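Example 3.2
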Amino acid sequence: MITKRIIPCLDVKDGRVVKGVSFVNLRDAGDPVELASLYDRAGADELIFLDISASHEGRKTMVDVVRSAAGTLRIPFTVGGGIGSVEDMREILRAGADKVSINTAAIHNPDLIEAGARRFGSQCIVVAMDARWDEEEEDWVVYSHGGRKRTDRRAVDWAMEAARRGAGEILLTSMDQDGQKSGFDLPLNRAVASEVCIPVIASGGAGTEEDFIEVFRETPVDAALAASIFHYREIAVENLKIRLKEKGVHVR
């Protein structure tokens, strides 16, 4: 039986963790390394750091965060945000990250997925996608630049292409559900995870322990990610995993 993973996500801006609703209205949530250490001790399976500053100065700050985190964490962690080249990947991985996440750069240059997989191995390459339901298209459309720019890509098609090009994992965020705490986007996660042969991380919408139970029972995703409910102590990772086990979900 596949073990499901629980992954806290830390959006980092100017060296601090922040969280918003549907990608806006950011508020401070704490120090990234302190929060990361807390989740490590609490039993999180992995962590994801997303540098939402993504400027040159933001990158320098993020590398420092990665180095500090690598010195304290026992669990794997992924870093994304503003990574646009194999050299960028190398810098983050050398600083101590286990994986890198690419989003906008992969959309504009899909060959980057293949180049990263060849250089570092598919297990190091996570392709993140931000998707929103489009009523006219009757499909999920992928957005770039932190959810600010609509693309002509469809979520399922893009996930399949990313997998073919060597991605080791898909980080799938529902823009409609992000920060809403009303549950994961089950149709989106089911549609994407059913069509790719690599792990899919469900992101966007977690508000209760039951939301995690539901996404694992109702879709074939391999992991579920959340931010604010963990950061603000609304749900404790250790309690969530106990609850999942009680409901028959296989977790570490």
